[in-house]
């Protein structure tokens, strides 16, 4: 009697171990952001194919496959391009350095306004020398351009930067 109870308990454990009822969502948590779940199915985000989420080996084999590696590289490049494109349209610039520069200029304008410093002072040789020597990307444009470029979008651009997690 005791023996048969032990046996069934053991087989119960064994069934759990094969993870028959694992969900696609659980597999996503195991394998990270390269997979996603949609409608109870497991997808490879890079290849956009459905994977058998029950069998772990199917997933690991796929993630190691050459086709996946190739698609993953293309997918990552695409993500980077998309991100840069968004920044380009919202801030009208296309490199990280330019984004940083705009941010410096806008912060500089804001600082001048708040401190009551006339923007003309930005063209003072001492100010220029100090900024160029000590502040990264501090190529501050002439004060008439500062008014045009820097003023209207200070808050908007800052908000965009926050949204893009770019600060
Ligand atoms: Zn894949």
TrEMBL record:
It comes from the Eukaryota. One of its GO terms (biological process) is regulation of transcription by RNA polymerase II. One of its GO terms (molecular function) is double-stranded DNA binding. One of its GO terms (cellular component) is nucleus. Residues 39-75 form the U1-type domain. InterPro entries: Cggbp1, Matrin/U1-like-C_Znf_C2H2. PANTHER family: U1-TYPE DOMAIN-CONTAINING PROTEIN. This is U1-type domain-containing protein.
